[in-house]
Write a structure and sequence with these properties.
Blueprint (H helix, E strand, L loop, with lengths): L5 E7 L23 H13 L4 E5 L13 H6 L12 H6 L5 E7 L5 H14 L4 E6 L4 H6 L8 H21 L6 E4 L4 E3 L7 E4 L4 E4 L12 E4 L4 H10 L2 E4 L4 H14 L11 E10 L3 H12 L4 H12 L22 H5 L11 H9 L6 E4 L1 H15 L3 E5 L5 H16 L12 H6 L20
Parallel strand pairs: 1-2, 1-13, 2-3, 3-4, 4-9, 9-10, 10-11, 11-12, 11-13
Antiparallel strand pairs: 5-6, 7-8
Helix pairs in contact: 1-14, 4-6, 6-7, 7-8, 10-12, 13-14
The chain binds flavin mononucleotide.
């Protein structure tokens, strides 16, 4: 049987997320992002479709590269206003049993000690359904908001991230023994102090001298996602990530990135299959091809091209406001993210992109491909995409929400299931067990985190 495809919903605690302008569509509910009923409904819809996870993006700054100010981002709700994603998770966990939550948190602006506790808290409250998308940010505005003159250089951010990971592994994996907590009412001992170990870490960037504040949670370390695929980003992924999330407009762009990260896994003592690969995709479904295409055309009428170029400017660090619409996009290397610029320049040298084409492409579903059709034709396209790229799953962007996720749960998932390409039921256990199988509640001994476990 062909391998099962995994699905995450790619969302953010803001309006419209990767489809700038579509909040103006009369059926779109993303403007309700600041109210819990919106999120609870969404979580239930995803669980109905047996999605593996809700993947929550986040930024700590504004997209102010376009035109040199946040005005266009504010006008178009291009990922601003944006609320904290972590706050949503307990509520959604309470109305679901199996859905995982991959939450994006930048490590650049928060010490590891309190962050590790917040993640442990969520792992407890979700009963082991939490994942962390490890990011370092790409917006200078975030650095400025945090009182810095600008963000740390691109590759150096990954070096700092490597060390941050060491500290959180020590806290999550090395501080409390599995049998430290006794809850012994008869003897009046809650925790055996001999089984709780002090974490010492001392470097220029991070100093910790203390015990982790949370008792061991179901997964200890949350499922680790990461989403950078530059050469330095790939090394980071191969060392730490259990799931890699990438975006690109075509299989030609995605396939080599998947292969490059899989090939690096053995360098870090891991098997290529230890890392699940997810790529971004947007699907627009109809019961007939005509219906799907009409929906696509209707959605397109709501796209904000200014909003799309505002996002692209933030991702790439290049101000697209000064470029003519018919101008070819030229490659630039700077300290913002690198893959977003590569997507429309050197990742596929045979494809030349104009600024207008970028605006139109990014306007629906960001940098990923858009597939429009019936459940059957979309399932065909997904099968072909998997064969061409070797990805394990898709992070689906939304167009008009939640209707597009309802379409996936109610139209596409039955078709994928009938083809044997999608699970009939959720696996029991933690998010890590659902992704990697029974017995994998915690990170394997081959993962670098094992180095930081207390070995007695
Ligand atoms: C699909 C995708 C989703 C991402 N989500 C976020 C996010 O929510 N927050 C964030 O700060 N960075 C996010 N990133 C950015 C990456 O973490 C990384 O900074 C970026 O891809 C640049 O890394 P690179 O130059 O190694 O490719 C995302 C990247 C991709 C490809």
């Amino acid at each position: 049987m062909a391998r099962e495809i995994r699905l995450n919903a790619f969302v953010m605690n803001c309006v419209a997320h990767q489809s700038p302008g579509l909040w103006t569509h009369p059926r779109d509910r993303s403007s309700d992002y600041n109210r819990l009923p919106y999120w609870l409904d969404l979580a239930r819809i995803l669980e109905r479709g047996r999605f593996d996870g809700m993947f929550l993006a986040d930024v700590l700054g504004t997209y102010d590269v376009f035109g040199g100010s946040p005005d266009a981002a504010l006008r178009n709700a291009a990922q601003v206003p944006v609320n904290d994603p972590m706050m949503l998770i307990s509520a959604m966990a309470a109305v679901t049993q199996n859905l995982g939550f991959g939450v994006t948190c930048t490590l650049s602006y928060e010490p590891p000690f309190p962050f590790a506790r917040r993640m442990s808290t969520l792992d407890h409250l979700t009963e082991g359904r939490i994942g962390w998308n490890i990011v370092t940010g790409y917006l200078n505005s975030a650095a400025k908001g945090m009182g810095k003159s600008g963000q740390t250089a691109h590759d150096a951010r990954y070096d700092v991230a490597d060390e941050y990971m060491e500290v959180v592994y020590k806290l999550w994996e090395g501080s409390w023994d599995d049998d430290a907590v006794l809850r012994d009412r008869a003897r009046g001992i809650f925790t055996d102090p001999a089984k709780v170990h002090r974490v010492h870490h001392d470097s220029d960037d991070y100093k910790v001298d203390g015990i982790h504040l949370s008792e061991p949670s179901p997964q200890r370390t949350p499922v680790l996602y990461q989403a950078g695929t530059s050469p330095r980003g790939r090394e980071f992924a191969a060392r730490h990530a259990e799931c890699v999330f990438m975006s690109g407009p075509s299989a030609k762009v995605i396939g080599p990135r998947v292969a490059a990260i899989r090939a690096l896994a053995p360098k870090y003592g891991r098997k290529p299959s230890d890392i699940l690969m997810f790529s971004m995709m947007t699907v627009i479904l109809g019961k007939t091809q005509q219906e799907a295409e009409a929906k696509h055309a209707e959605y397109r009428r709501h796209v904000s091209h200014e909003g799309a170029l505002t996002l692209m400017s933030g991702w790439t660090g290049v101000d697209f406001s000064g470029l003519a619409l018919d101008q070819k996009v030229e490659h630039v290397q700077n300290e913002a993210g690198r893959s977003a610029m590569d997507n429309v320049t050197r990742a596929d040298p045979d494809r030349v992109w104009t600024v207008r084409e970028v605006a139109e492409h990014v306007g629906i579903g960001g940098a990923g491909p858009v597939v429009v059709g019936t459940p059957q034709s979309v399932a065909d396209a997904i099968e072909q995409w998997v064969a061409q790229t070797d990805v394990d799953g898709l992070n689906l962007c939304y167009t008009v929400t939640p209707e597009c996720f309802e379409d996936v749960s109610d139209l596409l998932v039955p078709e994928l299931t009938a083809r044997g390409l999608y699970k009939k039921t959720y696996q029991p256990g933690t998010l890590r067990e659902k992704l990697f199988g029974a017995g994998h509640a915690r990170l394997d001994a081959t993962h670098i985190a094992d180095t930081f476990r207390h070995k007695g």
